[in-house]
Amino acid sequence: MNNLKLYGFELSGHSHRASVFLSLLGLKAKIIQVDLASGEHKQADFLAKNSFGQVPVLEDNGQFIADSNAILLYLATTYDPSRQWYPESPQQQAEIQRFLSTAAGPVAFGPARARIKHVFNHELDLVQAHQVSEQILTALNAHLAKRDWLAAKHATIADVANYSYIAHAPEGGIDLNLYPNVQAWLNRFEQLPGFVAMPKTYVALQTKL
Ligand SMILES: N[C@@H](CCC(=O)N[C@@H](CS)C(=O)NCC(=O)O)C(=O)O
User: Fold this and answer.
1) Does residue 204 have a pLDDT over 80?
2) What is the pLDDT of residues 77-115, one digit of tens each?
Protein backbone atom coordinates (compact mmCIF):
# COMPACT_ATOMS: atom_id res chain seq x y z
CA MET A 1 0.00 0.00 0.00
CA ASN A 2 1.55 3.28 -1.06
CA ASN A 3 1.17 6.61 0.70
CA LEU A 4 1.07 9.05 -2.20
CA LYS A 5 -0.16 12.63 -2.04
CA LEU A 6 -0.26 15.08 -4.92
CA TYR A 7 -0.33 18.81 -4.17
CA GLY A 8 -1.79 20.51 -7.22
CA PHE A 9 -4.32 22.86 -8.72
CA GLU A 10 -7.19 21.53 -10.79
CA LEU A 11 -6.78 23.99 -13.71
CA SER A 12 -3.01 23.51 -13.91
CA GLY A 13 -1.83 21.44 -16.86
CA HIS A 14 1.40 20.70 -14.99
CA SER A 15 -0.68 19.23 -12.14
CA HIS A 16 -2.88 17.32 -14.58
CA ARG A 17 0.23 15.79 -16.15
CA ALA A 18 1.04 14.24 -12.77
CA SER A 19 -2.52 13.26 -11.80
CA VAL A 20 -3.35 11.63 -15.15
CA PHE A 21 -0.15 9.59 -14.94
CA LEU A 22 -1.03 8.38 -11.43
CA SER A 23 -4.34 7.26 -12.88
CA LEU A 24 -2.76 5.62 -15.96
CA LEU A 25 -0.52 3.65 -13.60
CA GLY A 26 -3.56 2.65 -11.53
CA LEU A 27 -2.12 4.35 -8.44
CA LYS A 28 -4.35 5.82 -5.77
CA ALA A 29 -3.17 9.16 -4.40
CA LYS A 30 -4.67 11.75 -2.11
CA ILE A 31 -5.07 14.92 -4.21
CA ILE A 32 -4.58 18.10 -2.20
CA GLN A 33 -5.67 21.35 -3.86
CA VAL A 34 -3.27 24.26 -3.29
CA ASP A 35 -4.99 27.64 -3.28
CA LEU A 36 -2.86 29.54 -5.82
CA ALA A 37 -5.25 32.52 -5.83
CA SER A 38 -4.58 33.23 -2.15
CA GLY A 39 -0.83 32.61 -2.54
CA GLU A 40 -0.74 29.40 -0.48
CA HIS A 41 2.11 28.16 -2.72
CA LYS A 42 4.34 31.03 -1.51
CA GLN A 43 3.79 30.33 2.20
CA ALA A 44 6.48 28.68 4.32
CA ASP A 45 4.54 25.44 4.66
CA PHE A 46 4.40 24.89 0.89
CA LEU A 47 7.89 26.31 0.23
CA ALA A 48 9.21 23.57 2.53
CA LYS A 49 7.82 21.09 -0.01
CA ASN A 50 9.04 22.98 -3.11
CA SER A 51 11.38 25.93 -2.67
CA PHE A 52 10.30 27.17 -6.14
CA GLY A 53 6.75 27.72 -4.82
CA GLN A 54 5.03 25.90 -7.68
CA VAL A 55 2.61 23.01 -8.08
CA PRO A 56 2.67 20.09 -8.60
CA VAL A 57 4.52 18.38 -5.78
CA LEU A 58 4.31 14.66 -5.11
CA GLU A 59 4.74 13.28 -1.61
CA ASP A 60 5.69 9.64 -1.31
CA ASN A 61 6.12 8.34 2.23
CA GLY A 62 7.31 11.72 3.46
CA GLN A 63 9.65 12.40 0.50
CA PHE A 64 8.80 15.36 -1.73
CA ILE A 65 9.31 15.40 -5.50
CA ALA A 66 8.74 18.75 -7.20
CA ASP A 67 8.37 19.49 -10.92
CA SER A 68 5.86 17.68 -13.13
CA ASN A 69 8.42 16.00 -15.40
CA ALA A 70 10.49 14.90 -12.40
CA ILE A 71 7.29 13.40 -10.95
CA LEU A 72 6.64 11.46 -14.18
CA LEU A 73 10.17 10.11 -14.15
CA TYR A 74 9.94 9.17 -10.46
CA LEU A 75 6.58 7.41 -10.82
CA ALA A 76 7.62 5.56 -13.99
CA THR A 77 10.87 4.26 -12.47
CA THR A 78 9.31 3.44 -9.08
CA TYR A 79 5.86 2.11 -9.89
CA ASP A 80 5.98 0.64 -13.42
CA PRO A 81 7.94 -2.63 -13.24
CA SER A 82 7.15 -3.27 -16.94
CA ARG A 83 9.08 -0.09 -17.79
CA GLN A 84 6.65 0.63 -20.61
CA TRP A 85 6.45 4.29 -19.65
CA TYR A 86 10.19 4.87 -19.33
CA PRO A 87 12.05 2.08 -21.13
CA GLU A 88 15.57 1.18 -20.07
CA SER A 89 17.31 1.59 -23.43
CA PRO A 90 19.54 4.70 -23.47
CA GLN A 91 18.39 5.51 -26.99
CA GLN A 92 14.72 5.47 -25.96
CA GLN A 93 15.47 7.46 -22.83
CA ALA A 94 17.22 10.09 -24.95
CA GLU A 95 14.22 10.26 -27.26
CA ILE A 96 11.90 10.64 -24.25
CA GLN A 97 14.11 13.39 -22.80
CA ARG A 98 13.81 15.24 -26.10
CA PHE A 99 10.04 15.41 -25.57
CA LEU A 100 10.27 16.24 -21.86
CA SER A 101 12.34 19.24 -23.01
CA THR A 102 9.64 20.02 -25.58
CA ALA A 103 7.03 20.03 -22.81
CA ALA A 104 9.16 22.29 -20.58
CA GLY A 105 10.16 24.52 -23.52
CA PRO A 106 7.96 25.38 -26.50
CA VAL A 107 4.80 23.73 -25.16
CA ALA A 108 5.11 25.70 -21.89
CA PHE A 109 5.98 28.95 -23.69
CA GLY A 110 3.44 28.42 -26.48
CA PRO A 111 0.07 26.72 -25.81
CA ALA A 112 0.34 26.84 -22.01
CA ARG A 113 1.13 30.58 -21.98
CA ALA A 114 -1.60 31.42 -24.49
CA ARG A 115 -4.09 29.61 -22.23
CA ILE A 116 -2.81 31.42 -19.12
CA LYS A 117 -3.34 34.72 -20.92
CA HIS A 118 -6.89 33.84 -22.05
CA VAL A 119 -8.06 32.12 -18.88
CA PHE A 120 -6.25 33.99 -16.09
CA ASN A 121 -5.49 37.25 -17.93
CA HIS A 122 -1.84 37.34 -16.82
CA GLU A 123 0.55 39.94 -18.29
CA LEU A 124 1.90 37.84 -21.16
CA ASP A 125 2.75 38.36 -24.81
CA LEU A 126 -0.07 36.50 -26.57
CA VAL A 127 1.32 37.12 -30.08
CA GLN A 128 4.61 35.52 -29.12
CA ALA A 129 2.84 32.60 -27.40
CA HIS A 130 0.82 32.00 -30.58
CA GLN A 131 3.98 32.11 -32.73
CA VAL A 132 5.73 29.56 -30.51
CA SER A 133 2.58 27.41 -30.55
CA GLU A 134 2.33 27.44 -34.33
CA GLN A 135 5.97 26.42 -34.69
CA ILE A 136 5.85 23.55 -32.23
CA LEU A 137 2.43 22.25 -33.32
CA THR A 138 3.54 22.28 -36.97
CA ALA A 139 6.67 20.33 -36.01
CA LEU A 140 4.72 17.86 -33.87
CA ASN A 141 2.13 17.41 -36.61
CA ALA A 142 4.94 16.44 -39.02
CA HIS A 143 6.56 14.21 -36.38
CA LEU A 144 3.27 12.36 -35.84
CA ALA A 145 2.54 11.86 -39.55
CA LYS A 146 3.88 8.31 -39.54
CA ARG A 147 3.83 7.39 -35.88
CA ASP A 148 1.24 6.93 -33.17
CA TRP A 149 3.28 8.10 -30.15
CA LEU A 150 5.94 10.74 -29.63
CA ALA A 151 8.96 8.74 -28.52
CA ALA A 152 8.31 5.00 -28.93
CA LYS A 153 5.96 2.51 -30.57
CA HIS A 154 3.75 2.81 -27.48
CA ALA A 155 2.79 5.55 -25.03
CA THR A 156 5.58 6.78 -22.73
CA ILE A 157 6.00 9.65 -20.30
CA ALA A 158 6.91 11.77 -23.35
CA ASP A 159 3.23 11.63 -24.36
CA VAL A 160 2.02 12.24 -20.80
CA ALA A 161 4.25 15.32 -20.45
CA ASN A 162 2.93 16.94 -23.62
CA TYR A 163 -0.74 15.96 -23.57
CA SER A 164 -2.42 18.37 -21.12
CA TYR A 165 -1.40 21.76 -22.49
CA ILE A 166 -1.76 20.68 -26.11
CA ALA A 167 -5.23 19.23 -25.48
CA HIS A 168 -6.28 22.50 -23.84
CA ALA A 169 -4.61 24.76 -26.42
CA PRO A 170 -8.02 25.90 -27.76
CA GLU A 171 -8.52 27.65 -24.39
CA GLY A 172 -5.63 29.87 -25.51
CA GLY A 173 -7.29 30.62 -28.84
CA ILE A 174 -5.35 27.97 -30.81
CA ASP A 175 -7.16 26.03 -33.54
CA LEU A 176 -6.12 22.38 -33.31
CA ASN A 177 -8.02 21.57 -36.51
CA LEU A 178 -4.91 22.83 -38.32
CA TYR A 179 -2.95 19.92 -36.86
CA PRO A 180 -4.86 16.68 -37.65
CA ASN A 181 -2.03 14.31 -36.69
CA VAL A 182 -1.77 16.05 -33.32
CA GLN A 183 -5.53 15.72 -32.88
CA ALA A 184 -5.37 12.00 -33.71
CA TRP A 185 -2.59 11.58 -31.13
CA LEU A 186 -4.67 13.42 -28.49
CA ASN A 187 -7.61 11.10 -29.23
CA ARG A 188 -5.34 8.07 -28.95
CA PHE A 189 -4.06 9.30 -25.58
CA GLU A 190 -7.62 9.77 -24.32
CA GLN A 191 -8.37 6.10 -25.09
CA LEU A 192 -5.62 4.83 -22.76
CA PRO A 193 -7.06 2.83 -19.83
CA GLY A 194 -7.16 5.06 -16.76
CA PHE A 195 -7.20 8.35 -18.68
CA VAL A 196 -8.85 11.21 -16.80
CA ALA A 197 -9.49 14.62 -18.34
CA MET A 198 -8.50 17.99 -16.93
CA PRO A 199 -11.59 20.15 -16.27
CA LYS A 200 -12.35 22.65 -19.00
CA THR A 201 -12.19 26.31 -18.01
CA TYR A 202 -15.02 28.78 -18.41
CA VAL A 203 -13.24 30.00 -21.56
CA ALA A 204 -13.62 26.56 -23.11
CA LEU A 205 -17.21 26.25 -21.94
CA GLN A 206 -18.17 29.70 -23.25
CA THR A 207 -16.78 28.94 -26.70
CA LYS A 208 -17.84 25.26 -26.66
CA LEU A 209 -14.24 24.08 -27.28
N1 LIG B 1 8.54 23.36 -14.21
C2 LIG B 1 7.41 23.28 -13.34
C3 LIG B 1 6.41 24.36 -13.69
C4 LIG B 1 5.18 24.31 -12.78
C5 LIG B 1 4.31 25.53 -12.90
O6 LIG B 1 4.54 26.43 -13.73
N7 LIG B 1 3.28 25.56 -12.05
C8 LIG B 1 2.39 26.67 -12.02
C9 LIG B 1 0.94 26.21 -12.14
S10 LIG B 1 0.66 25.52 -13.75
C11 LIG B 1 2.53 27.38 -10.70
O12 LIG B 1 2.64 26.77 -9.65
N13 LIG B 1 2.52 28.71 -10.77
C14 LIG B 1 2.63 29.54 -9.63
C15 LIG B 1 3.90 30.33 -9.62
O16 LIG B 1 4.80 30.09 -10.46
O17 LIG B 1 3.99 31.22 -8.79
C18 LIG B 1 6.76 21.89 -13.46
O19 LIG B 1 6.90 21.27 -14.52
O20 LIG B 1 6.15 21.41 -12.49
Assistant:
1) no
2) 999 999 999 999 999 999 999 999 999 999 999 999 999
- The architecture in CATH of the region 90-206 reads Up-down Bundle (1.20)
List the chain domain ranges. 4-79, 90-206
Per-residue pLDDT of 3-25, as tens digits, reads 999 999 999 999 999 999 999 99
Q: Residue 101: CB within 6 Å of ligand 1?
A: no
Residue 174 neighbours by CB under 8 Å, 6+ apart: 111, 114, 130, 133, 137
Q: Is 17 a pocket residue for ligand 1 (Cβ < 6 Å)?
A: no
CB atoms within 10 A of CB 83: 13
Residue 198 · residue 167 · CB < 8 Å? yes
Q: Distances from the Cα of 134 to the Cαs of 12, 22, 33, 44, 89, in angstroms?
A: 21, 30, 32, 39, 32
Strands (E), the chain: 4-8, 30-33, 57-60, 63-66
* Smallest CA separation from ligand 1 atom 11, residue: 54
Its CATH class, for the domain covering 4-79, is: alpha beta
